[in-house]
Design a protein that fits this description.
The complex is a heterodimer of chains A (79) and B (405). In chain A, a hairpin with a 2-residue loop joins strand 1 (22-24) and strand 2 (27-29). In chain A, 18% of the residues are buried. Chain A is mainly alpha-helical and 79 residues long. In chain A, helix 3 runs antiparallel to helix 5 (54-63). Chain A has helices at residues 4-11, 15-20, 36-42, 44-47, 54-63, 72-77, and strands at residues 22-24, 27-29. The radius of gyration of chain A is 14 Å and the shape is globular. A two-stranded antiparallel sheet of chain A has the order 1-2. Chain B has 4 domains: 4-37, no CATH class; 66-182, no CATH class; 194-211 and 297-404, no CATH class; 220-289, no CATH class. Helix content of chain B is 63%, strand content 0%. In chain B, helix 3 (46-86) packs antiparallel against helix 4, helix 5 crosses helix 7 and helix 10 packs antiparallel against helix 16 (303-313). The longest helix of chain B is centred in the N-terminal third of the chain and has 41 residues, at 46-86. Chain B is flat, with a radius of gyration of 35 Å. Chain B starts with 16 loop residues before the first helix and ends with a helix. At the A-B interface, helix 1 of A face helix 13 and helix 15 of B.
């Protein structure tokens, strides 16, 4: 369930990221870089809950950004 | 002969006027010295040469004196340049930065580098790019020297500041955060604008809280039955209309599931089947956030900060109703004034003092509880009043300038 707070946060994303945003019951895909500190400050309550929330997913993704695969070597060594 | 080839013969008639202005040459004499003059110059006696040397010696002394006075003159010129820039209508942030520049003790170049920068180094270095971008955005006056001196000053700072920001600190904080810490936010509120600011931000607060309608109850079965027997355009419109409701992901998934099960029961190629297919496609394209919310969030993005800092500073100023000469304030203005006055008095005693100058303190503050309740007439008055709002601006920067930070 999306909260107004999350919707407000999503509304401020760059337009190109907003147009590609995928929000499904068990998945959130954001095509932009997020500042983990900013996400934590904004959603500290939602992140500190025992259940898995969109906000928590966003925070984890911002904390451990996935490096884009550019070469074959990246593909071989990616985790 | 082509005109371009004759330009040195007719320099006084040259159309390129600035050349004449710069070198003070009013005719082409210098380029066509007669032979007699040249022969006279060759016949200069030794005595004449001595006189010339004496004159040169005297001139050199005056040059040395001028060189000794150079640092103080440079200082004066820099101050002149800065004061001419400060006379422009600049945002307070830039004004503060320029004030810190003039406050530096510019006692010669060495003193400038050694002592003066120790004081304001952090402030200046953290905002050097910011300052440069701003100075690029404003047209300086026609005195070229002012522009050159500012450029010189900034290039010095560039060299000195290169050691200031380490790659580690750059990774930790963005330029925006650096600006937050180095230039604490200061609300430009005084006796004359306090009442107007309160009205402006209160009106924006009402607009922001009113902008989004409450979510409507949604029934999947009704929705599907409404789109089955209509034409293609109506299907598209009714699905696009769902954007206002900002359907949660689970509801969307339910609709998709219902559509898939309905597709199995309808005949392929029928109107109902194609309508369902169109509905599914349009649903997948539907953004999760409504355009109203996007517009709202962007327009009032910095409203909590502006309103919060106005409230923090409200007890320090006096409220005044500014009306045109010869006209009395209307009853609604007076009632609003009384409400804000009561709020001001209560804020003096109430604990409404977050960390001053920190931007982002009020991001999630609920102002509905803090601001006074208004009657419908007062609300209507605030909404109809033509007030210049800057709730979309970060500090008082132009949105284009904000992009660069």
């Amino acid at each position: 369930m999306t909260s107004n707070k999350l919707n407000d946060f999503l509304a401020l994303l760059p337009i190109e990221a907003l147009s590609r945003l995928q929000l499904e019951p068990h998945k959130i895909a954001l095509y932009t870089t997020l500042d983990s500190v900013d996400v934590l400050n904004t959603f500290s309550e939602e992140i500190n809950t025992p259940t898995l929330t969109y906000e928590k997913c966003m925070y984890i993704a911002a904390k451990h950004p996935i490096q884009p695969l550019k070469t074959y070597n990246d593909l071989l060594t990616c985790k | 002969m082509a005109i371009a080839a004759q330009r040195f013969r007719f320099l006084d008639q040259e159309t390129n006027v600035p050349i004449v202005d710069f070198n003070k040459i009013s005719d082409n004499f210098a380029y066509n010295i007669p032979e007699e003059t040249l022969t006279e110059l060759q016949q200069v006696t030794n005595e004449d040469a001595k006189e010339v040397l004496n004159k040169l010696q005297a001139n050199l002394q005056s040059v040395t004196e001028q060189l000794n006075e150079f640092p103080s003159k440079l200082n004066e010129e820099i101050n002149n340049a800065l004061s001419s820039i400060r006379n422009l209508d600049l945002p307070t942030t830039i004004r503060d930065a320029l004030n810190s520049l003039t406050d530096l003790d510019l006692d010669g170049l060495k003193g400038f580098i050694k002592n003066a920068l120790n004081l304001g180094k952090a402030v200046l270095c953290g905002n050097l790019g910011f300052l440069k971008l701003f100075l690029l955005g404003f047209s300086l006056n026609k005195n070229i020297l002012s522009g050159l001196l500012i450029a010189l000053l900034l290039s010095w700072l560039d060299r000195i500041c290169s050691s200031q920001v380490t790659p580690q600190s750059r990774q930790k904080s963005t330029r925006r955060e650096l600006t937050h810490t180095l230039f604490p936010y200061k609300q430009n509120i005084h006796n004359d604008n306090a009442f107007r600011l309160m009205q402006t931000y209160h009106a924006d607060h009402i607009r922001k809280s009113r902008a989004l309608p409450p979510p409507r109850p949604f029934d999947t079965t009704n929705f599907l039955s409404s789109i089955v027997n209509v034409n293609t355009r109506q299907v598209r419109l009714s699905v696009q209309d769902l954007i206002k409701d900002e359907l949660p992901p689970i509801t969307r998934e339910n609709i998709r599931r219902e559509i898939s099960s309905s597709l199995r029961t309808t005949t392929r190629g029928s109107q109902q089947h194609s309508n369902l297919l169109i509905a599914r496609r349009e649903l997948n394209r539907l953004p999760p956030v409504s355009p109203e919310r996007i517009r709202n969030e962007r327009r009032y993005r910095h409203l909590p900060e502006k309103l919060g800092h106005t409230l923090v500073n409200l007890p320090n100023v006096e409220l005044r109703i500014n009306t045109p000469i010869g006209s009395a304030p209307n009853p609604i203005q007076i009632s609003l004034y009384n409400k804000y006055q009561n709020l001001r008095d209560s804020l003096q005693t109430r604990e409404f003092r977050p960390v001053p100058g920190e931007f982002g303190t009020f991001r999630h503050h609920n102002f509905t509880q803090t601001l006074p309740a208004l009657t419908p007439e007062e609300e209507q008055y605030l909404l109809n009043e033509k007030l210049n709002s800057d709730s979309h601006r970060w500090r008082d920067l132009h949105p284009t300038s904000e992009v660069f930070i």
